[in-house]
Amino acid sequence: MEGDDVTLSCQTKTPSNLPAAFFKDGVFIGNESSGDITLHCVSSSDEGLYKCYISGDGESPSSWISVSEKHPTTSPPTTTPTKGEEVEAILQLFES
């Protein structure tokens, strides 16, 4: 949902401490030694096909991420607004 943080995790079948490269729509967006990358406060511009690559292990299939619109509430909030929720998506590498 708009405003949430989304964490993408690149995982191999066997545990790996190698860095993962992340791509959106075929364009490199970051290299993370932890194997995770977080997209902060997502919006519709973050929609697209994501994949990751770990050297020596290969790349994940592309996964579509869509961002839904936050709907305004008709009544005022009864509590103090908090930061958006965090969502996790796992990009799994498969052996061919």
Automatic annotation (TrEMBL):
Region annotation Disordered: residue ranges?
63-83
Top-rank taxon: Eukaryota
Q: Does the keyword Amino-acid biosynthesis apply?
A: no
Q: Where is the Ig-like domain?
A: 1-68
Q: Which UniProt keywords apply?
A: Disulfide bond, Signal
Q: Does the keyword Oxidoreductase apply?
A: no
Q: Which InterPro entries match?
A: Ig-like_dom (IPR007110), Ig-like_dom_sf (IPR036179), Ig-like_fold (IPR013783), Ig_Fc_receptor (IPR050488)
Q: What is this protein called?
A: Ig-like domain-containing protein
Could you tell me which species this protein originates from? Characodon lateralis
